[in-house]
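Slide 14.
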Amino acid sequence: MKSEPQGLLFSNRKFFRSDRFGYALLFLLSAAAFLPLITRIGFYWDDWPMLWFEVTQGPQGFADAFTSDRPFLGILYRWTGEIFSVNPLSWQLLTVVFRWLAGCAFFKTLRLIWKDRPDETLWIAVICAVYSGFKQTPIAYVWGNAFILLFFYLLSYVFMFLAIDAFQSKRTAIATAYTILGVVCCLLCTLCTEYYTGLDLARVVMIWVYLRRERTEPTSGLRLIRDSVLYWLPYLTAFISFMVWRIFVFRFPSYRPVLLDRLMADPLRTGLGLLQTVLQDAFTATWSAWFEFFRFPFGESSAAFSDRVFWIVVLLSFILLTAALVLREKAASRNNGTPNRDWTGGAVIIGLSAIVLPGLPYVVTDLSPALTFPRDRWLTAYMFGSSILLVALIDWALRTRVQKILLVALTAAFMTGGNVLNANSYARDWQLQKSFVEQLQTRIPELEERTYFFTDFNPLSYETDNSLTGMVNLALFPDHQTLDLPTAVGFFDVRFDRDLTQLKSGAPIYHGFRSALFSGSASDLIVYFYAPPGCLRVLDPTQHSDLPIFPSSFYELIPLSNLSRIRRSDQAQPPFLREQVFRDSGGETWCAAFQKADLARQFEDWEKIAKIGDESIRLGAKALSPAEASELIPFIEAYAHTDQWQKSIPLIRETHRMNPDLDQPLCVRLQRLLSEFPIDEVGTFNEVQAAFYDVGCSLYASENDK
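Slide 15: predicted structure.
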């Protein structure tokens, strides 16, 4: 009667000690970190250029786009683009799946290095699976492909250690096959991206630690080094071949090796600076990344919805991890207990090498990782060494297994919550992108080609002007199929270093977009300002030059804005982005109404503006009232033009209440309107007079104003 329960218990113990349990735990943890907000995030940063090439150029577009720097990466983008198309959710799922698979490959590598340490290797894999220093997982079009490459790169370590095991067992044919597979997997990644070339130098350190542990017979240090180099040689050959190809064929198309020039000019100072940079980068990838999201639950930290979600995820993840790791630990009691052989020394050596060597490609080109966008992307190369080092230090510093498990679980839980907070930041940005596109398409029903959008303020956290170039072209010209871009977006500081000389001269403007190119004229600019919750403003020299609501630099740019590039059209802009990418048809919002009115204001269609105002203005209503006071001015003007002064009175007072700084420019406009459209009805005249006085404005203009 008792044999069946014992058999079932024994079977459960075997599962808890198996690698399958580790893979399942990594899956649950990845789901907790990356799935809660997955339906609320979309495309960002370099996703947009890639999406533009896919939609407008087809599969061949990727080959053209990457010809100059990463030709093999274009092949991967071509395959994945055909499969996942333009649905952001499918790309997000792809990214999460391959980040999990990469974590599984890393866990398998660790199990091959430390065969007698199933618990510690799982702890490392758990930390790595939710490593929160790298925050770009939501940039799914780019990192979905990147994690596919990273998965194959980590598989190369799995095959490498399987090959070494086979060589040690004199199974030469199997070892050779594994070696070939390992080198092929390594090259699949390295030929597409150089992010892990520095990390690849840590292979020989990992091999040395592995051989030092595996060999039971006495082996001299020189022989150990020799054998390590021999096993490393196939990968070293692949590495050197790649570097020769990269340096002498492509000649650094993106980043220049400025370190070499500095070393020749000032070796001592450059060398000391290099040491400081390496140490700082290592600190960023370890201590700063480990404890970035550690916090205590004060009252204010649970006020916002995102903070409440953070604490829920942290708590549930901590409970899950603690229970899972304790169950795995308990299962070891019938499996010869915990090994006594020390492993922390080797782990520290591998960890240090894997947080120092990955930075070499970056310091050579004067780049450094950070915990902020966009430099956090380079931390993918550091996260493996960082995770190994953290667990090694925990294992060395704490005495009992329970203490170690609790600290590992707590750290991973906070990192899991940190990833959810990070996703929430991307979700907010996605909403701002949606609003930007909806407003842009409403405000600009038709645009002349070769128009350059220009701004000096960008509220979107994860988009550059190249990102917006892809987005705006897809919004306004989704059917355009040549590499001659019909429009582009430029940031004043990025493209012109805040120098107006070229712009004022009307000189040609060229904006590179990988294999595509925008060419236009500085006389064909549209200057815009977007600062949510305020609406998108397409700036008009006749309307906006006197409004004190923009950053100071804009008052030099506004006169350059040429709104004649915008045409009226009875047809709405193509719904491609809204329906197929954002999957949101929009709704009745204040900014949608404002953009219709602002378009009509450009063409002085006062009747239409007044009608929009009658239908849309609901002062005090959250969805249908302005966040920026000056957005009411077109309606005030329209009611004056259509002899409906009574309707303008609450709008005048609301404008003053929201922003008294607008009183002076509003007063000038009101006086001009009153002289052009006098009020005949006495009661209305008195009410308008009272509204004028509320904003500090006399009823009639002074001689200077006239």
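Speaker note: The CA atoms of residues 204 and 229 lie 6 Å apart.
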